[in-house]
Amino acid sequence: MSVLDVPELALVALVGVSGSGKSTFARRHFAPSQVLSSDAFRAMVADDENDQSASADAFDALHYVAGKRLRAGRLTVVDATNLQPHARAALVRVAREHDVLPVAIVLDVPEALAWERTEARADRTFGRQVLARMSRDLRRSYGQLAREGFRKVHVLRGVEQIEAAELRYERLF
Ligand code: GTP
Ligand code: MG
User: Which residues crowd ion ligand 2, with CB under 5 Å?
Assistant: First the structure.
């Protein structure tokens, strides 16, 4: 079992390709109200959780709500792929603005499994190359996460580790 230490007040960024199990992990470990998902925010601003052209507005709104929650001292989880440095930088910035520790939890499953899961979903219609690009972005992310300002970077490799993970909250004071 991997025990993941998470400060009791943190901004938790889930990091992983589509189909890695981020939303499933978020549902298992956090209350629905603690989880801000890019899909939900795309739906809020554009009536369509897959409308990529709505991403900029969706993330603006997500960051705004994250800031409100952190200011109120509430643990917040961002369920998005978070594979791009600029996406993660925005989260580190929101966390710092509110004196909250940013933490990353990376879910890394074999690309073939992520593809199998993604293909099985009616609400995911992108092609194999898009997933391959996400995998490359994930590989690249490994060397970058710590120096981007994440206080902790937890990496779960494979379904077994992901399913066995437990969170342990650290008191801050
Ligand atoms: P995107 O939202 O597309 O980025 O994907 P995601 O990373 O949120 O993946 P999601 O949690 O939606 O998982 C996709 C599918 O994989 C789920 O519908 C489950 O069927 C399966 N799955 C996810 N996590 C697990 C897991 O830990 N164990 C098993 N057995 N299946 C999982
Ligand atoms: Mg998801």
Answer: 23
Q: What is the pLDDT of residues 130-161, one digit of tens each?
A: 999 999 999 999 999 989 999 999 999 999 99
Separation of CA 169 and ligand 2 centre (Å): 23
Checking ipTM against 0.95, whether it exceeds it is yes
Query: What is the DSSP code string of the chain?
Result: --EEEEESSEEEEEE--TTSSHHHHHHHHS-GGGEEEHHHHHHHHHS-TT-GGGHHHHHHHHHHHHHHHHHTT--EEEES---SHHHHHHHHHHHHHTT-EEEEEEEE--HHHHHHHHHT-TT----HHHHHHHHHHHHHHHTTTGGGT-SEEEEEEHHHHHHH-EEEEEP--
Considering every ligand atom shown, identify the ligand nearest to the alpha carbon of residue 81 and give its number: 1
Residue ID of nearest Cα to ligand 1 atom 3: 18
Name the pTM for this structure.
Answer: 0.97
Q: 113 CA distance to ligand 1 centroid (A)?
A: 10
Ligand 1 atom 27: residue of nearest CA: 163
